[in-house]
Amino acid sequence: MAIFSPGFRGRARGADDRLPPGQYLTEDFPVLSAGPTPRIAPERWSFTVTDETGAETTWSRAEFLALPQEQPHVDIHCVTRWSKLDTDWTGVSLDTLLGAVETQAEYALVYSYGGYTTNLPLDDLLDGKAWVAHRYGGAELDPEHGGPARLLVPHLYFWKSAKWVRGIRLLDRDEQGFWEAAGYHDYGDPWREQRYRDD
């Protein structure tokens, strides 16, 4: 298992009320990954929602791009203590994707090319809180930042915004993902500094 150092440094601007406790601002976009970067040809990318019965709804890239697109303008916060303000993305709201699925599930397990997973309460993916994003800063999302597409859940620490996302499994009960099973917090609220399991 790869471990990365929280050694990024920068000038803290504690007066900024958009900066969660323990975070510093960066103008860069640091690249942190638990393993090698998967290389997925965009035309071969697809996204699947699997409900709690095992039924699947899948969108090809062309079908995904034909869905209503949104442009979230959000701040992002990494568990390694950097925050980046005013980031611009393009993607499809989870409200749109999950609107095609009937479910009574309360939890979701997000899974990615390369085997990465992360868990979230389903409520944290709905009501305009989350997107599957394929563009950043007006350009196609680089593989190092999760391209062809990544989850974007800006109100939680950024490890919850899984890179190289390929699907979501809806669950009746919570199931820990990669970093959660390794000791990270199950929820990951940056404003409550929920970095690790006992925080």
UniProtKB/TrEMBL annotation:
Residues 35-179 form the Oxidoreductase molybdopterin-binding domain. It comes from the Bacteria. This is Sulfite oxidase-like oxidoreductase. SUPFAM superfamilies: Oxidoreductase molybdopterin-binding domain. It comes from Nocardia jiangsuensis. Transmembrane segments: none annotated.
